[in-house]
TrEMBL record, chain A:
Superkingdom of source: Bacteria
Any one GO biological process: tetrahydrofolate metabolic process
Coiled-coil portions: none
Organism of origin: Marivita cryptomonadis
Molecular-function annotations in GO: sarcosine oxidase activity
Protein name: Sarcosine oxidase subunit delta
Gene3D superfamilies linked: Folate-binding superfamily
Record-linked InterPro entries: SoxD, SoxD_sf
Pfam families, sorted: SoxD
TrEMBL record, chain B:
Domain spans labelled FAD/NAD(P)-binding: 172-422
Organism: Marivita cryptomonadis
Pfam families: Fer2_4, GCV_T, GCV_T_C, Pyr_redox_2, SO_alpha_A3
Source species taxonomy: Bacteria, Pseudomonadati, Pseudomonadota, Alphaproteobacteria, Rhodobacterales
Organism superkingdom: Bacteria
Keywords: Oxidoreductase
Protein name listed in UniProt: Sarcosine oxidase subunit alpha family protein
TrEMBL record, chain C:
Transmembrane region(s): none
Organism name: Marivita cryptomonadis
A Pfam family assignment: SoxG
Highest classification ranks of the organism: Bacteria, Pseudomonadati, Pseudomonadota, Alphaproteobacteria, Rhodobacterales
Coiled-coil features, chain-numbered ranges: none
Gene3D superfamilies: Heterotetrameric sarcosine oxidase, Probable tRNA modification gtpase trme, domain 1
Domain of life: Bacteria
Name listed for the protein in its UniProt record: Sarcosine oxidase subunit gamma
Length: 109, 1005, 190
């Protein structure tokens, strides 16, 4: 059972306190978007064996949504950070680059 | 015969006799006995029968790896099948029954399977039950059902009498296993300053060491163990839990511990089992090793046991499995058994050592005691039926020529030891093949890793492949030091105790005995005792092309019994490797999955049973409804009254009465469960415009508006009335089941997408009790209570107002879900019950009638109002329901708007909402489909719609329904046909969904 | 007001700890930036406490404040004063971006009294209850068995547990079960 630290309240929360919210850093496409953009936003998801960026909510806790950078293979958590950002913070990316040289995720490398 | 001897028995108390029943017979044992040792002491070697062939089986092991001595324990509400006699501590009054036999353990009819065994080879289920096809249903399936299932299921009417609980624990270092390795690791880690919790599955610390002998720091093992326990007990940072098994190791240092509190003392108060939910930074698995059987013909005859088990029964329980025991081995350790037996005054006619050169110091010691040792020898076969009669000796290098028949009543066998790597492997630890021990052991370079990417499991002692006593202690100390250092505890000196024991000569792997055994012998050489898998079965599977160990496991059922292959795994895969001509590491092992041994369902459920099985949400008026005879309906976790039947009244009649009373005079509904979410901020109006399909920002303070919420993919998700409290504050009502979900939905959008919008939300659902006062006399009742003006002018339809009624502080909403004159009154929850009582009392003159959810549903359906969950099912958009009026055309955006423009959503062929009336006034079936012409490509009848809500309307005295129908709104008056649950289809006319008071005259008075 | 009815009417259970449904606990939810000076000052003026830091509590007599999240605090006072204090605070924050709601009726509060309270809580919540990990002065929002809950310790042998009113009977049930006299784990005490 995963243990993920909520960046808002600092609790190292076990999975039963958390709610998984799928892929992070999606760009919303609204009313005037093309079918292709909208379909990508609504349905197309990364499914990496390796580094992934995810949304979690500390639902049985402080209630905050946050992001986690996690390896879906080893379950290593590289870091958690605010959900109110469009890209992972540099220090976390540096950590990942050091630990997983050559990783890519969407447009991030 | 097996019997109690006069000496030894370090775990039993001969001053405390204990009587128990086995298959109805009263037997005696001593306090400290396991059921297996007590049965052996009573010469009850036969303890069960195997699953497939019903072969008679005796106990083979002395611990949790036991595959044969599986019994049903207890009676009635405490009956439990498939319990291991070897891990069951006896107590006064214990009742056990053996399994897999009929009519009795001694005379079993199913043994006929044994005679048919040549037809029941590997994969026989797949081969035998395929053809002819029609036989499946009437012959094969009933046969399989009859013979399937291990043990007896508890009686369906019985109810577990015991209590269970969970416990969350956190520690730096968790040590699993309380043998000398576990104790040494715990001592080292605790001395270094780490917080240590040690779990031991049995009632005793020390593991095998006291049985195997040697000395530690010059002390007898028992003395050293007592000293270690004292030291740990004295340390403030160390704890010990006995009778607690480390059941499984999971991600990020999560471990389940299974504590058996009262299994050995069922009359004791308190929970029976406690499930420890442990989070450990580091885990040391000091889980020891399991001895392997040898594969020779007749190795399953009662009386053939593991050499270590024979020694355990003798030393720990003072029980001899036989007077004359032949020892068969490929290693030195089994000599300890021979020596112990002879020292106890029992006979060992011979030791058959498969190694051409024999063993080391222990062999010399055995020889010095006058024990005959045959090297390069094999047990060709064991003779006997329900008991060992003799061992036929041959040469290991041969094909099974019998050189001598040695008469005996027990056989102690040892094929070497396999480290218990289960807990290392549960969470991904990898193994390497240790050719010198012929065993898999943990590969330290490929340990399971935790959330930080670092290793979190360390193996200790025999579990790490260290077998000599001193190696065990040094290895264990290193493990303790490693784990402690990883949690930053490095003080003190990490010196280990030193162990003295004879040096041992290397073993020689023996996977078949004799190595060239002919087929008749291989057909009687068992690998998996419980599931009756033989050497020949695995070889056949290999011949038939099963190369993967995982496939072979499933095809032959090797290792699929309750013991999960603890004894059979390595022998089985070595046999497979040999048959495939492959190396053992190349074949690999099957996956080790938790739990290590089965744990009770009760422990998993914990406290969740009876009244606290799950949370039941109750409104402030719950008790009043209960007293009023409520017939309850679950809505999410809430309990809502479905109706209030009076004495002698049917639920159906009660619903009818409630509808008519409300329509004609005055009804009362507990609406407290409706969600009430407060949304405030300068961007609150803009935010609600985003959430709802219609415009909320234009709502005036004091007014209410009905709104729809969709998900981002366009589907209708929730509905409710929004009240604007002031310029930047709104109160959003949600459905009963929707409050938490919609509040979470709002927070998700605010926190993750619209985070620069200034909006706060609070879910205030439970702050208020809410009562709908409904019917033509509703206003009169409120006026009678007095305190605020509720007239049409002061509080018009779709308005709200704060005020006071009968002295209660209230917020009154003039909204209606029934089409009647209706007020929903919110009061602080703690006043809800008093307010309800006041309404009931004051409403007597109008025959005030509490009504339930069914009357609510009927009245809304009569008015053509949709219900989330009835008209919607996650695939319905508001446009399907004719709710276009509630979808703003002016707004640039709302959640779901873009999705509703997708081609499938705008398809004119989407089924649309209509009303439906049967031609004969009867009620349509819920969920019934409208039948269209022709069939689809799968030959199924085409459909053109379905019923979403259907009721008998007491108001109109006929069946009414709503449904989604192809081109429905354009087909008013058409008659279509609906399925009717297997009965002749029903004809129904498409009508306007508003059946009652279409102009809304009643609610606007 | 005499008509006030607690969810369980002041239920009580005595076992490993004494469990009492508390009457008279007022609770006010504050949503807003807890580091905003206007908000900190207003709370101090009305409730007499300084808003606490992350996962901390602050008390002054019968008023107090619990940190719930970076933008949410639970303000405590006596039940009778809750509405007035909430109105007062809301008025003071009229020009700030904040939401103040009296939620005194929305919740049930249980007091646990006794030295075994750490064990009783540890049977239900996935929280490290060791004495050096959870101390008076801290508050924890979490899950207890199957429902959301928050708890804090007033002193070494007193804790308060808060849950939604509708599940008060469930909470009382699981607490009582966990506090059964014969179920001591003796993990935190020896």
């Amino acid at each position: 059972m995963l243990l993920i630290t909520c960046p808002y309240c600092g609790v190292a929360a076990e999975e039963t306190e958390l709610h998984a919210g799928g892929e992070a850093h999606l760009t919303r496409f609204g009313p005037d978007s093309s079918d292709e953009d909208f379909t990508g936003y609504l349905f197309h998801r990364e499914n990496p064996k390796g580094v992934h960026f995810e949304r979690w909510r500390h639902v049985n806790g402080c209630g905050k949504w946050f992001h986690a950078a996690r390896c879906t293979n080893t379950l290593e958590v590289f870091g958690t950070y605010s959900a109110q950002t469009t890209e992972p913070p540099k220090d976390i990316l540096d950590t990942i680059r050091a630990k997983r040289p050559g990783f890519t995720w969407r447009t991030i490398a | 015969m097996s019997t109690r001897v006069q000496t030894q028995g370090r775990l039993i108390n001969r001053d405390r006799p204990v009587s128990f029943k086995f298959n109805g017979t009263l037997l005696n044992g001593y306090q400290g006995d396991t059921l297996a040792s007590a049965l052996l002491a009573n010469d009850q070697m036969l303890m069960g029968r195997s699953f497939k062939y019903h072969r008679p089986r005796g106990v083979v092991a002395s611990g949790s790896e036991e595959p044969n001595a599986i019994v049903g324990l207890g009676t009635g509400n405490r009956f439990e099948p498939n319990q291991r006699a070897t891990t069951t501590e006896i107590f006064h009054g214990l009742t056990a029954i053996s399994q897999n036999h009929w009519p009795s353990l001694n005379y079993d009819v199913g043994i006929v399977n044994n005679l048919l065994s040549r037809f029941l080879s590997a994969g026989f289920y797949y081969k035998m039950f395929i053809h002819p096809r029609p036989f499946w249903k009437h012959i094969y399936e009933p046969f399989i059902r009859h013979s399937a299932g291990l043990g007896k299921a508890p009686d369906a009417k019985s109810r577990d009498e015991d209590r269970y609980e969970h416990f969350y624990a956190f520690t730096d270092v968790l040590v699993i296993g309380g043998g000398v390795a576990g104790l040494q690791s715990a001592l080292t880690a605790a001395r270094a300053g780490a917080k240590v919790l040690l779990l031991e599955q049995t009632a005793h610390l020390g593991g095998r060491a006291p049985v195997d002998g040697g000395t530690i720091d010059g002390m007898e093992p028992d003395a050293w163990i007592a000293k270690a326990r004292e030291e740990l007990n004295a340390l403030p940072n160390a704890q010990i839990r006995t009778r607690t098994m480390g059941a499984g190791v999971y991600d990020h240092g999560y471990v389940l511990g299974y504590e058996r509190l009262t299994d050995h003392a069922p009359e004791a108060a308190g929970p029976r089992h406690r499930l420890w939910r442990i989070r450990a930074a580091q885990i040391i698995t000091a889980t020891g090793a399991i001895e392997r059987p040898l594969s020779f013909a007749g190795n399953d005859i009662p009386g053939v046991m593991l050499a270590s088990a024979v020694r355990d029964y003798l030393v720990n329980f003072g029980v001899s499995p036989g007077d004359r025991t032949v020892v068969v081995t490929n290693n030195d350790d089994a000599y300890r058994t021979a020596i112990a037996l002879v020292q106890a005054g029992l006979k060992v006619p011979a030791i058959l050592d498969a190694r051409p050169e024999g063993g080391g110091a222990l062999m010399d010691e055995a020889k010095a005691l006058g024990i005959r040792v045959e090297t390069g020898a094999a047990a060709v076969k064991v003779k006997g039926a329900k008991r060992v009669h003799s061992v036929c000796r041959g040469v290991q290098a041969g094909e099974g020529e019998v050189l001598e028949e040695i008469f005996c009543d027990a056989v102690a066998m040892s094929g070497g030891w396999s480290p218990v790597v289960h807990l290392w492997s549960h969470c991904g630890g990898k193994l390497i093949w240790d050719a010198s021990q012929a065993a898999f052991r943990p590969d330290h370079d490929r340990a399971p890793t935790s959330h930080d990417g670092n290793p979190f499991v360390v193996t200790s002692g025999a579990a790490d492949g260290a077998f000599h006593l001193n190696d065990v202690l040094q290895n264990a100390a290193n493990a303790g030091k490693t784990a402690a250092a990883r949690v930053g505890a490095e003080k003190g000196d990490a010196a280990a105790s030193s162990g003295e024991a004879p040096d041992e000569a290397p073993l020689v792997p023996v996977w078949m005995m004799p190595q060239g055994a002919k087929k008749q012998l291989r057909m009687k050489a068992w690998l998996d005792y419980q599931n009756d898998v033989k050497v020949a079965d695995v070889q056949l599977a290999a011949q038939e092309g099963f190369e993967s160990v995982e496939h072979t496991k499933r095809y032959t059922t090797l290792g699929m019994a309750t013991d999960q292959g603890k004894l059979s795994n390595i022998n089985g895969l070595a046999t497979l490797a040999n048959a495939l001509g492959a190396d053992i590491p190349q074949v690999g092992t099957t996956t080790f999955r938790p739990p290590y041994t089965p744990i009770s369902m009760g422990a998993i459920a914990g406290e969740a049973r009876g009244d606290i099985f799950q949370p039941i949400r109750k409104t402030p008026m719950h008790d009043r409804h209960e007293a009023n005879g409520a017939h309850w309906e679950p809505v999410g976790h809430w309990r809502r009254a479905y109706a209030f039947p009076r004495k002698g009244e049917s639920v159906h009649d009660a619903v009818k009465r409630e509808v008519l009373a409300t329509r004609n005079s005055l009804g009362l509904l507990d609406a407290s469960t409706l969600g009430k979410i407060i949304v405030k901020g300068p961007d609150a109006g803009r935010f609600l415009d985003m959430l709802y399909t219609n415009m909320m920002s234009t709502l005036k303070p004091g007014k209410c508006r009905y709104g729809l919420m969709c998900s981002e993919n366009g589907f209708l998700s929730d509905d409710g009335v929004v009240a604007r409290i002031d310029e930047d504050t709104f109160l959003c009502h949600t459905t009963t089941g929707g409050a938490d979900r919609i509040h979470a939905h709002m927070e998700e959008w605010l926190q993750t997408e619209l985070w620069d919008w200034k909006v706060w939300t609070v879910n205030a659902t439970e702050q208020f009790a809410q009562v709908a006062v409904v019917g033509p006399n509703a206003r009169k009742l409120l006026e009678k209570l007095g305190g605020m003006d509720v007239s049409k002018e002061a509080l018009a339809f779709m308005e709200w107002k704060d005020g006071e009624l009968a002295g209660f502080p209230v917020r009154a909403y003039r909204i209606s879900f029934s089409g009647e004159l209706s007020y929903e009154i919110a009061v602080p929850a703690n006043l809800g019950r008093a307010f309800w009582d006041k309404l009931i009392e004051a409403g007597k003159e109008w025959d005030i009638t509490p009504y339930g959810t069914e009357a609510l549903h009927i009245m809304r359906a009569e008015k053509g109002f949709i219900m989330i969950g009835d008209e919607t099912d996650g695939t319905v958009i508001p446009q399907d329901l004719g709710l276009d009026w509630a979808i703003s055309k002016k707004k640039e955006d709302y959640i779901g708007k873009r999705a509703q423009a997708r081609s499938h959503m705008t398809d004119p062929k989407r089924w649309k909402l209509v009303g439906l009336e049967t031609l004969d006034g009867s009620v349509l079936q819920d969920g019934a489909y409208a039948i269209a012409d022709g069939v689809n490509e799968n030959g199924q009848t085409n459909t053109e719609g379905r019923v979403t809500s259907t009721y008998h309307s007491p108001t109109l005295n006929k069946g009414i329904a709503m449904g989604l129908v192809l081109n429905g709104p354009d087909r008013m008056g058409d008659v279509i046909t609906f399925t009717n649950g297997g009965n002749p289809p029903k004809k129904a006319r498409i009508v306007n969904p508003v059946f009652f008071d279409p102009e809304g005259e009643k609610q606007n008075v | 007001m005499s008509d006030v009815a607690l969810a369980l009417g002041g239920a009580n259970f005595d076992g490993l700890v004494e469990i009492t449904e508390l009457a008279g606990q007022g609770m006010v939810t504050l949503r807003g930036d807890l580091t905003d000076n206007t908000i900190v000052t207003a709370v101090n003026d009305v409730f007499g406490v300084t808003l606490p830091g992350t996962r901390e509590t602050a008390f002054s007599g019968d008023t107090g404040a619990l940190w719930m999240s970076p933008d949410e605090a639970m303000l405590l006072c006596s039940y009778d004063k809750a509405q007035d204090l909430a109105d007062d605070l809301a008025a003071k924050l009229a020009d700030a971006h904040a939401l103040v709601v009296n939620v005194s009726d929305a919740r049930a509060v249980f007091q646990l009294k006794g030295t075994m309270l750490r064990e009783v809580i540890a049977k239900l919540a996935p929280v490290d209850m060791r004495a050096d990990a959870f101390t008076p002065g801290m508050v924890r929002r979490t899950r207890m068995a199957q429902v959301a809950a928050a708890f804090w310790m007033d002193d070494a042998s007193t804790a308060r547990v808060v849950c939604f009113r509708s599940v008060a009977a469930y909470m009382f049930g699981i607490l009582s079960m966990s506090a059964d006299d014969s179920s001591a784990v003796n993990h935190f005490t020896r």
